[in-house]
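During the second year of the project, the team shifted from modelling isolated chains to modelling whole assemblies. The rationale, set out in the original proposal, was that interfaces cannot be judged from single-chain predictions alone. As a representative example for this report, we include one of the complexes processed in the last quarter. Its constituent sequences, exactly as entered into the pipeline, are reproduced here:
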Amino acid sequence: MPSVLIKNGTVITMDRARRVVERCDILVEDDRIRAVGDVGASCDGGADRVIDATGCIVIPGLIQTHVHLCQALFRGMSDDMELLDWLRLRTWPLEAAHDEESIYYSALLGIAELLRGGTTCVVDMETVNHTENAFRAIAESGIRAVSGKVMMDWGDDVPEALRETGEHSIVASVELADKWDGAADGRIRYAFAPRFAVSCSDWLLREVGRIAARRGAYIHTHSSENRGEIEIVEAERGARNIIYLDRVGLLGPRTILAHCIHLDQSELDTLKRTGTHVAHCPSVNLKLASGIAPAPEMLDMGINVGLGADGAGGNNNLDQFVEMRLAALIHKPRLGPTVMPALRVLEMATRGGATALGMEDEIGSIEPGKKADIVLLDLRKPHASPGACADPVSRVVYSAHSSDVVMTMVDGQVAYGGGQLTNIDESEVLDRCDEAIVRLARRAGLAR
Ligand SMILES: [Zn+2]
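Output from the structure prediction step:
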């Protein structure tokens, strides 16, 4: 069984007691953490590989509970717009223009950024077509992902290539779930992904609720991001978004809702009662002028909240360190400086994500028995120093940059280290992505 000893780091365990342990070793055997503490002396000579973490901070792999790998290619193509225009004028036409190769390289581009930035697990929403190729990229890259094809059978301004019948959407989703759920040694899981109530028929949403319940499958969708979206849902379905999603059977402990910005008290109560999880996406909510989600209020109520960057088409990065810093900052003017301390934010970015996936016994902290999803940060740099007296959690949330990540391990495998991605040819991906976006922009009528 291959073993790796990560030696002598300052380990932010995020265990139940939230212990931070200095001069701490981590022994990894195969895909799991075997021991945490002073294990170096007993097995130094025995480990197949020793990684010296002296001077480094070690954190659990970051978990992003809402991204779109298929939009990584659209970075910089759709700035300074609000959500519904951003979808209708840019994102849908570009998604409609995707082909098998462009989906594959878009996913690899997004994953390259994620692994370089310490994200080891994502909840991903693809587009209508070619999702197989995103799964292929996820499998090859080494990242952990819950993903699924987007479902949309309703609404105006949807390009021809993204229009599908509800029946086709269900059949295609079930086929993908049968093939990919549990693939790549369990690193890949499937989520049914109706885009949002604006682009899904009542029939489709009810079918997704029924099938996901029968299979025990994840549901991943957007809700209550934008006031215009809420007005459309109220006019067409006769209820506020969250109340409607509950009515059609979409809410529950296997469901992750992205955004949840504009909620009334009855909607908050419904999220709590159903055990539904929320993905807080502060950057994109600011950039699309959507608003600020009541994440602190949700956490106070006992609603589980994870953190995510959403797509690079809207964000324009997939950087969990930016999301952590913003999640810590944006609520303070409204609710005071103590409302989102660094530890609460790091909890969202690690344990909160694990809980959203029902994987709290597998990922989200550095503890014996858990999957070895581990990130090393080198913060011996001016922007994060001095470190001698500062709280390590504060340094990670308030000072660190994603470029401070020096090693990202997923499932016991080093996916990024020594400045190199193990399984991704980065320069090839960058070249192919430049070619692909030219092709897609031309097809979508968006070429400059
Ligand atoms: Zn999204």
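The chain has two domains: 3-60+367-420, 63-356. Residues 3-60+367-420 form a domain with the Urease, subunit C; domain 1 fold (CATH 2.30.40.10).
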